[in-house]
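Morning F.,

Quick status update on the modeling queue. The single chain you submitted on Monday has been processed. Sequence for confirmation:
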Amino acid sequence: MADLQVNFAGITFRNPLVLASATPGWDGLRLKEAGQAGFGAVIPKTIGPIQDWAVHPRNGRLFLYRVGNRPIGMVNLELFTTKTRDEWIARDLAVAREGGAKICASILAMPEPEQTAELAQQVEATSLADLFELNVSCPMPAATVGMHIGKNPELTFRQVRAAKRALKLPLSVKLTPNVADMVEIARAAVEAGVDAITISNSIRSFAGVDIETGRPHLRGYGGYTGPAIKPIIMRHFSEVARAVKVPLAAVGGITSWREVVEYIMLGATTVQVATTVMWDGLGKVEKILRGLEEFMERKGYKSIDDFRGITLPYIKTVEELAQEPPRFATINMSLCKNCDICSRVCFYGAIHQEEGRTWADRNACDGCGLCAQWCPAGAIELKE
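Structure tokens below.
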């Protein structure tokens, strides 16, 4: 049997799957149910004070973004917890613990680091959390919190240092993808003493326009989540994974066990999910874990450590790739259906059809590989 246990910042989780800080964990009961569904750890919606900017909309705040009729993402106007700090401390964290999962308390980085430290100590004093996740990354709130802290390495450093000094338990910091380069911010967090890093929060976005009325689908800027954001988050994640040596939690675009494996191969210790649970329910947890276990048994992996980070050495710069020998489209005639899709997507004029036969001209082919990606029969490969 494959062993799904992982050690994240000194805490042992029964498996790497974590409920991310989002709507499904808005109170203790839902976190308890998530733990019972099989998550290795659960994270409540970010705990903070009651402020005007922490009151979320109740007039529509979620929008499914579709291509055709297929949802590929979701824009949300969610903010932080709708329960008070006192409610979490007095009741909800204890209820959450009944689910059997580790509790990672998400706390808000307050405008002043000293306030953050005080909040951290109050939650830690309950003895109901196993570790902490510091939120410096929400894309919606006022200019003094959320991503407005997390976009700045110095502000992130100060927040992490204050929280770390206040806590005895391990601390992760959840970074924002709404930056050009996350590495500098991650290094600042490591310098400040953080035990782990979570990558990352939702992408600041706009839901679009109803062209029949001229009105926006959501009347504010929100956070984009779901399958469509995975390539963006994986870029940030892999860059940070190559730059720092602390454990990493991945979150963004996970819909199946396959994405879990991808993130682990890029260096993740744990993988957080939320949108897929909102779309498909808590039954998705068992499916993901079963798929992960079956994959590991098929590949002969005994533990998560066996394949963590194995992809990173293969990532190169575009300049390095340009120095490698060129490859050209090669068509397997026994598989080709002569559907003409490949010639339609080739803008180099390298693919031709003559007398019911499709062939590729090596002299014209520029080796982009788009034809192979589109071929429904799998008849095209790039070869030297």
